[in-house]
Amino acid sequence: MFEYLYGTVEYKKMDYIAIDINGVGYRVYFPLREYEKIEVGNKYKFYIYNHIKEDTYKLIGFLDERDRKIFELLLKINGIGSSLALAVLSNFSYNKIIEIISKNDYTTLRQVPKLGEKKAQIIILDLKGKLKNLTYTEEEIVSMDMLEDLVLALEGLGYNKKEIDKTLEKIDLSKFSSLEEAIKGILKNMRIGD
Questions:
Q1: Which of 87, 135, 138, 164, by CA, is between 20 and 30 Å from 94?
Q2: Holliday junction DNA helicase RuvA C-terminal domain location, by residue (predicted)?
Q3: Cβ within 8 Å of residue 75, ≥6 positions away
């Protein structure tokens, strides 16, 4: 298993590069968004995700360690494979993904090919809870705190976590401007679903 690879880029294709380390060439797949940043002949450090699946072994590299962390979190979401996770990071930088999540911006996330509305909502809901350990701006923390407060309020009203998660998957939270408005909208939706 590799944590990172540091070496000279010998050549690059649209979705992978060959990096030379002491005379050994490694094929490293990377997000397409980084294509222009990588120049043949220069040295780079790629943070590696070792993708092992049945008879396939791929090295997937990221210039930013935070991108690798998001990639790993995406893979833990049911229905998201390495190709779709890489497509997300090919379209958006780490900071843009954080912004999308903090603003519940399903529309922007859906720009990723083969990513429908439902998967976009699942990604946002799932990552909101898991990205707590990463660095956020004050505005992003306020937005995520609102989601936490919303879940706590609904639990306080007697709804269980499973009901809450199921309902939140169906609702676009970005349309609510306040916690009170979100609670009212979600309660209305839960009553209709009963």
A1: 164
A2: 145-190
A3: 81, 82, 85
d(CA 194, CA 192): 6
Residue 194, SS3 per DSSP? coil
Query: Would you call 81 helix, strand, or coil by DSSP?
Result: coil
For 27-79, the pLDDT digits (tens) are: 999 999 999 899 999 999 999 999 998 888 999 999 999 899 999 999 999 88
Domain span at residue 44? 1-63
The tens digit of pLDDT for each residue in 42-54 reads: 999 999 999 998 8
3-class state of residue 132 by DSSP = helix
For the chain, what's the residue count? Answer: 194
DSSP state at residue 184? H
- Helix, strand or coil for residue 13? coil
Is 2 contained in some domain? yes
Decide which of 63, 98, 113 is a domain's last residue: 63
